[in-house]
Amino acid sequence: QLGPVPGMAHKRIGGEYSIWLPGGLVVLACEDQFLLTPTEPGRALLGGTPPGLPPYLGAKPWLLVEDLDDADALRALLRATADALPAPAPKRGRRLVRAP
Question: CA-to-CA distance for 9 and 24, rounded, in angstroms?
Answer without folding.
Answer: 10
